Amino acid sequence: MSFIKTTEQDSNYNHLEKMSLSDLLNNINKEDQTVPLAVQKAIPQIETLVHQIVIKLKQGGRLFYIGAGTSGRLGIVDASECPPTFGVSYDLVIGLIAGGDKAIREAVEFAEDSTNQGWTDLQKHKISDNDVVIGIAASGTTPYVISALQQCNKNNIITGCITCNKNSPLSQTAQSPIEVIVGPEFVTGSSRMKAGTAQKLILNMISTSTMIQLGKVKGNKMVDMQLSNDKLVDRGIKMIMSELNVSYTEANSLLTKHKTVRKAINTYNNEN
């Protein structure tokens, strides 16, 4: 297997400490602009995986993200934002990180090197062949992630991955790999930068397109979002105003009565 870690290759820039602040910021931005183009090339791979996710979730399955370090944190961020954004349960999209919750805020030494903990963490959630598991690892070599996907494969669980190196061990393990090749980082090896940005963009695409396919968006509005603060309540009221052509006061009354934007709109339409 030919495998070169482009994420670990020397930066295209040198003597960073000698650059002016303006040069640092502009050069980081210049590198960042290459990321969406790299993601674009991976859209066919993303589409293949999302198609499978939608099928399983419609059948009552769940989506798991599993990773270590930055990759694990990004998975947890995306998973945690699905319930408030789309009104789904907190156990529909689940993010797992090597080292557990402590690792969300601080590094847990050698947690990513375990070859059995990933599968153990999945088993705590009673993982089954009705679920989908996406391994996230910029390097594509993280044992915690690879071993978890290997066990999933043995148990007929659909596996995907997001990695930023081509032909990595993780890509070879996942049934539906997503490879987004962003090249060397501005600071050599700092994969929280371009690689992390690419992973975040792809996670946005996966969860958002999945939820739209599941009917969690109407028009272009988050009609199932949780109304957890005043800003979101106001947004919900304005969605109802726009959809039903009613006043702010009436929309507020409808939302207060029916609790969700979708129910308020549907009930109003059914009664009028």
Please characterize this protein's 3D structure:
It is built from eleven helices and five strands; from the N terminus they run αααβαβαβαβαβαααα. It is of the alpha/beta class. The chain has a five-stranded parallel sheet with strand order 2-1-3-4-5, with helices on both faces. The mean pLDDT is 95. The longest helix is centred in the last third of the chain and has 20 residues.
List key phrases describing it.
49% helix, 272 residues, alpha/beta, single chain
Can you count the helices? 11
What is the molecular shape? Answer: globular
Distance between the termini: 65 Å
Q: Order of strands across the widest beta sheet? A: 2-1-3-4-5
Work out the strand percent: 5-15%
Mean pLDDT: 95
- Name the helicity range: 40-55%
Spell the H/E element sequence: HHHEHEHEHEHEHHHH
- What's the count of strands? 5
Radius of gyration: 21 Å
Query: Largest sheet, if any?
Result: 5 strands, parallel
List low-confidence stretches: none
The structure class reads alpha/beta
